[in-house]
Amino acid sequence: MTIKFTRRAALGSAAALPFAAAATPILAAGAATKANSTIAKSFTLGDFTVTTLLDGSLPRDGAQEIFGGGASDEDFAKVSADNFISPDVAQFFFTPTLVNTGSELVLFDTGLGQGGIQAALADAGVTPDQINVVVITHMHPDHIGGMTTNDAPTFPNARYVTASPEYDFWAAQEAGNRVGDLVAAKVTPLAEKMTFIEDGGEVASGITAVAAYGHTPGHTVYHLESNGQRLVLTADLANHYVWSFAHPEWEVRFDMDKAAATASRRNVLGMLAADKVPMIGYHMPFPAAGYVETRGDGFRFVPVSYQMMG
Fold this sequence. Notes:
The protein starts with 6 loop residues before the first helix and ends in a 7-residue tail after the last strand. It is globular, with a radius of gyration of 18 Å. By secondary structure, it is α+β, with helices and mostly antiparallel strands. Helix 6 (about 165-170) crosses helix 7. Strand 13 and strand 14 (about 220-225) form a beta hairpin. The protein has one domain (about 40-305): Ribonuclease Z/Hydroxyacylglutathione hydrolase-like (Metallo-beta-lactamase, Chain A), CATH 3.60.15.10. About 50% of the residues are buried. It has helices at about 5-15, 65, 75-80, 115-125, 140-145, 165-170, 180-185, 245, 260-275, and strands at about 40-45, 50-55, 55-60, 90-95, 95-100, 105-110, 135, 150, 150-155, 160-165, 195, 200-205, 205-210, 220-225, 230-235, 280, 290-295, 300-305. Helix content is about 25%, strand content about 30%.
């Protein structure tokens, strides 16, 4: 499939993004305590420890306009009712993931830049200066907002990894493009510490990049494997746990190349369902981990309960 991205697509995508870097999550980032954690959740994957970090959560009206492109009102309402959710309001979650490989701490995405990532890391017993690697799955504001704090790197000792098509596209945007401007402010100053990964490339032993373009030009998901156990960090492959699974062909406003995004959803979700591999999705309900099963012509997200508990 040919993926076509243009400046017009970039401008349209920026205008349709769910939240600017200045968005204010409803969830108070520091509200959790060690005894009753609500913003950091750890799972065991072989010799890896995988921790999801809740950067924030908030509702948004106009769910069908965001997630139901091409759906009839009746179909969208039925899928919503069948899953006990409103067809009008979507709840967004923002969930970076930390992977402790035993030799490195690898952080996937950095959140909105409102302090939530620091609070969630603290809840997990980690300080930002301990992070060895920061992987950016794609460069929408809710994924790169936390790369810097007060114009200084939030993770001063980290090296950075992203896909070259992603960085090249946004870095080439003219001034005035919201994402391009944020990339210039947050990402470009760290470019000398950044390496660019290709499809199939390794971030670290057991962490492999899988191209899943469409949401953005270089949107990449990551396959984790340790001692024969597998998990995929799906980033923004599917932005909602019901609508984007039940009908992968329903267009999502935030997807820049909608046909390619649909193809990526079907390919990756199909693999997860067939191989019974768990996933963590950036916008899934916290703790953002679950499984995928086939259902009709689409899929169903099955949240974890006590699987993968260390």
